[in-house]
């Protein structure tokens, strides 16, 4: 868990993806990558062929509203939106279980990109 403090010195347990998105924005990063244990954002979590390769902020918000993005993927997509709003150029959700997934995403197209 990512630990932080508030103005009064109280300890806070901060979602690691939320912290990473804020750091990426503060650093004016060009790319922000989240690794997870699924191929990326899928229209149907039971169908790997339903992987959404690319979407914009409006489409991501709509997928959340429609319940297509649900459960643990909601905070990840929300963090991606936050990073983009903070000035990050592109964000990616990739399957961290795959060998070389990060290299493939940065130099190819294996996960979901916003």
Specify the overall morphology: globular
Structural class: alpha+beta
Question: How much strand?
Answer: 15-25%
Query: What average pLDDT do the residues reach?
Result: 91
> Helix segment count?
4
Kindly provide the name of the CATH class. Alpha Beta
The total of beta strands comes to: 5
CATH topology name, in short, is: Carbamate kinase
Main sheet overview: 3 strands, mixed
Strand order of the largest sheet: 3-4-5
How many structurally independent domains? Answer: 1
**SSE topology string:** EEHEHHEHE
Low-confidence stretches: none
Query: What is the correct CATH architecture?
Result: 3-Layer(aba) Sandwich
What's the gyration radius in Å? 14 Å
Task: Report what the structure shows.
- The chain has 114 residues and is of the alpha+beta class.
- The protein has a single domain (2-113), classed as Acetylglutamate kinase-like (Carbamate kinase, 3-Layer(aba) Sandwich), CATH 3.40.1160.10.
- It has helices at 16-26, 57-65, 73-85, 101-107, and strands at residues 2-5, 11-14, 31-36, 90-95, 112-113.
- Strands 3-4-5 form a three-stranded mixed beta sheet, with helices on both faces. It has a two-stranded antiparallel ribbon with strand order 1-2.
- This is Aspartate/glutamate/uridylate kinase domain-containing protein.
- Residues 4-95 form the Aspartate/glutamate/uridylate kinase domain.
How would you summarize this macromolecular structure in one to three sentences?
This protein is of the alpha+beta class. Helix content is 35%, strand content 19%. The strands form 2 sheets. The chain has a 3-stranded mixed beta sheet with strand order 3-4-5, with helices on both faces. Strands 1-2 form a two-stranded antiparallel sheet.
């Amino acid at each position: 868990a990512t630990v932080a403090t508030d103005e009064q010195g109280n300890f806070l347990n901060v979602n690691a993806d939320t912290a990473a998105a804020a750091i990426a924005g503060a650093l004016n990063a060009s790319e922000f990558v989240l690794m997870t244990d699924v191929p990326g954002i899928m229209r149907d979590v039971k169908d790997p062929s339903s992987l959404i390769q690319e979407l914009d902020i409006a489409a991501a918000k709509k997928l959340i509203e429609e319940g297509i993005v649900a459960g643990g993927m909601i905070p990840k997509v929300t963090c991606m939106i936050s990073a983009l709003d903070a000035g990050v150029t592109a964000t990616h959700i990739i399957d961290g279980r795959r060998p070389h997934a990060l290299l493939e995403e940065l130099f190819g197209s294996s996960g979901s990109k916003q």
